[in-house]
Predict the structure.
Amino acid sequence: MRVPYSWLMEYLETATPADELAEILTMGGLEVEEVEEWTSADGKARDTILITSVTSNRGDLLSMVGVARHTAALLRCNLKLPELRIEETDSPNVAGSDLTQGDTRITIDDLPGCPRYSALRLVGVQIRPSPDWMRHRLEAAGVRPLGNVIDATNYVLLELGQPLHAFDHRLLVRGHIIVRRAEDGEKLVTIDGNTRELSENDLVIADEKGAIALAGVMGGTETEMGERTTDVLLESAHFNPTMIRRTAQRHVMSTEASYRFERFVDPNLTLPALARAAQLIRQTAGGEVAGPAIDVRAEDFAREPITLRPARTNWVLGTKLQTPEQVELLKRLGFGVETDTAAAEGAARGLPDRDWLRPYPNELQALERMTVAVPTRRPDIEREIDLIEEIAIIYGYNNMPTTLPGAIASAGVRTREQKLESRVSEVMRGAGICENVSYSMMGGCDLDFLCLVPEAPEREALCLRDPAAENQELMRTTLLPGLLVAAQHNVRRRVDTVALFEIGRVFLGRGEGVLPEERQKLAAICMGSSRVSTWNLPNEYQEMDFYWLKGVIEQLCGRLNVTGLTFERADRSSLHPGRSATVIVDGEQIGHLGEISREVQRAYDLPSPAVLLEIDLDTLIAKADLLAQYAPQPRFPAVNRDLALVVDQDEAHSGTHLIEAAERSGGELLESVSIFDVYADPERLGAGRKSVAMRLVFRDPDRTLTDEEVDEAMRGIIQHMERKLRAEARTW
Amino acid sequence: MEERLKDLSMRARAALEGARSLDELEEARARYLGRSGLLREIQQGIRDVAQELRPRIGQLINTTKADLERILEERRGALEELKIHERGDEQLIDVTLPGRAQYSAGRHPLLATLDDMLEIFLGLGYTIASGPEVENYHYGFEALNYPADHPAMDEQATFYIAEDVLLRSQTSTVQIRVMEAQEPPVRVVVPGRCFRRDTMDATHSHTFHQLEGLCVDEGVTFADLKGTLLAFGRGMFGEDTQVRFRPDFFPFTEPSAEFAVTCFNCHGDGCRICKGSGWIELGGAGMVDPNVLAGVGYDTERYTGFAFGVGIERFAMNRYGIPDMRLLYSGDMRLLRQF
């Protein structure tokens, strides 16, 4: 809200400069976002404007007087309020829901929506522009001057926070105001010129012909004030905040009035606001008040006082505020405070110092109490804790002590899962793959780009009702789109080497009404060189290909102490059918690895086939071990033998199968088998055959092996290979 | 004989020390120390020396030979070293060519910032908790004491999946889940993603990260909250950091505060980063509202607690001088390789 400094100072006995005031208010619960130097359009007036940002619980700060009250409490200075009474509002005509007075009748049909409707009639007014002082004030506060009567209502809205509405009394059918729900389909042309189609959820002000205003939001054109209006009916009502909020939202309108009603306007402000408006209108438009004010209301809007234990204040805040200090702080806010002096003896002050800071809860109840009468303008204060907050604000947060909570018998440590997750990131980064953070949303198009089959579980994605951006309407079920989009981002900027991984959650639907399963995944995309610089290096030493990324997974499992890692040829529509694998740990599939298919490459417009990885990190971490177990270093030397096999080039003779065959037939002395060369040469080896060279390491933990023993083991392996795998073997 | 030896020694020494290349050195070696070199010649001449002088001469020859061989080796070493520095030798490499190591990647700036924050709270005895990012309305608003249909909810701009299912707009939702699962004392921090329907620009993102803290026990006070956040500010920005609190409003805390630290860049003098104020706002905090504690079944007379929430993105941007929030989510290799 725009608070002109000179307007505010009218109510305060202080000379605090604007900048200083802004700082005090900000630190005292009313944030001043900006201090603006302002000059009126006609150049005649200047002011300093404090632009405040009011939290949604403090509707009472949406007026000059509200700000002045708060300022007076913070500065401990006197408040000078304008006269808010006239004879006609001092003795109004009161009724419960329906009242007739002369040619005017007020009926409230919907008391929950409108618990109070006050009105005042003025006759013989003369519409003309407002005097300069009023026009300047309105302009400074950001409201356009429209003519003396309307200006007076807006002035009261700004000054007191009570929205008013002025009807031309002669245009009201039979002078009868009815507050009711709109009928479904009922139409109203509001003064902004829009035709509003209403529903029975909207509260309207109507006359006997139909709706004439959207209650608490905006008036209608039919009964709008005109230049020839002389007979005015002023409305000053209290509306239900939720109803006003829903109506304003439904019609996408936010007005000075609706903004305030949504945040609660003091129900006891209706008559003072009418008095103030009548004074201003008489001053600027002439005319006379016609009869007493009309006050139709469902109740008398009194409030029960709230009990506060001063010790509780200190228990919550960690302060040592004495009871009289607390009383004084509350009184500065205009609250009525009564202390129970009999019980007060020997209470707070009598306790030893340390206990006073931290009394035990049971002792609290034995301590003093005070009863606090809170004005109806502060609906946010209902409980003891609300009063404690007020004390804290007026006392000043920065004046309170600064301590640390007592120690508890628990160490701040990461859990096993958290430690392992950090390790995963470490290993991936150690391999030179950058950590990526991407959005949790993806587009339906991404699922198509990934060529996922219709029955793929990734297609069961949660859909946002109101997405923030294009292609971000689904919660991700896979991390791959985020990585592919990032790869595309880089390629478009001519960065062709991409190595990214992400650890993040995916969301798997579990049916309506049930929260989705959130699983942690690890995914990576790699293309280009793994090295910082590659001059003179052959391609295979630098390229991040299938085997490179596979190596990273093997390293990762090693560092996580995961055993039983195997790979099988995979059939995934998004991956190259010949160059992709399922990642398996202990027989359980945990994810996939492979080159992207040509279709995916094309969809994301990538220059080379990237390799992708996605595994279920929760599963992997469940299988991991934080600590490695020591295995003693061998005491006796190993004997290495190399063996070349020419075998068929098919799945039955895959690397894993050959190694397994060697392990099965190698006997106890065979320690390890590794493949170090693979090639196909149709001319020398025959079509459909390949040569695989493997290194076999033999060792006995307790002695040095003899050549004869190793020879025998080798014979067993070769025999097995020749008989079972149709291999031609050669040793050297 | 002695004279000749002395003369030879001098000349050989000069030739060896004066050799300017390995070739010249070899030539000198052959001439003086070789199989048919001059020293050998003298050695053979010992037969002509009187019997009684022979041991002395023999010893002299041996020491001369040893001296010259030492000189030869010294010179050879020096010349070899010299040669490596010359152009064209196969052992010579261009040490200025770039290294060919594998890349090694650093932590993402956002997560590195988060790690540093977590480190501080681990040190203060907090454990790290997490909770669902897709939440029920109950945990998103109701349990956090949001009044139904209140303007406070507009500030959240929440994403909905269904009437009752939403994306959490703050990590505070996890407060409830943590308290439902355990009795006090509670001391947790919750890092995590949050979502708001913000228009994407340099300082707004619909996906962002927060760190939530929660401490509930007997006798936990607002003063303790101040001290905890002061410790946090000092841990992040150094021992001379100050923390400032001003009133704010959150439905789930009361009293509520906005907290700021002295600008790490200008130390409070005012600069571009703190927009001249000397302060950088870090987040919201407050004493957990009794309604929230009662909602999870805690005795609100016995237990009090504080909670706070810090946004990570702007913090990280300030720290590393990253001008646009979207860069953090771009996966741009040129950005990520800098960290």
Q: What stands out?
A: Chain B has two domains: 2-85, 109-336. Residues 54-85 of chain B form the longest helix (32 residues).
